[in-house]
Design brief:
single chain, alpha+beta, Alpha-Beta Plaits, two-stranded antiparallel ribbon, 6 strands, 19% helix, metal-binding, Ferredoxin, Fe-S_cluster_ET, transport, electron transport
Length: 80
């Protein structure tokens, strides 16, 4: 499972940070940061979701008010 985070879309509500510890608040920039995320395009970060953390990653995506977070299964199908 992988997670994709569009930092450009993020509005800094930080709801994702309460759901998954891999998202942290960056108050200086008014955006969340995805720890260990690889920037694949400008402002788009991707990382694998560690085993056992799938639920938390999905919840982080579900609570994002601007849909800046997407979760994909191992086949590349979007879950959230």
């Amino acid at each position: 499972m992988k997670i994709e985070y569009d930092r450009n879309t993020c509005t800094g509500m930080f709801q994702c940070t309460a759901e998954w510890e891999k998202f942290v608040e960056n108050r200086e920039e008014g955006k969340a940061d995805l720890l260990e995320g690889e920037e694949v395009e400008e402002g788009i970060f991707v990382r694998e979701v560690p085993e056992g953390e799938e639920f938390d990653a999905e919840m982080a995506a579900r609570v994002c008010p601007v849909d800046a977070i997407k979760v994909y299964d191992d086949d590349g199908e979007q879950i959230v």
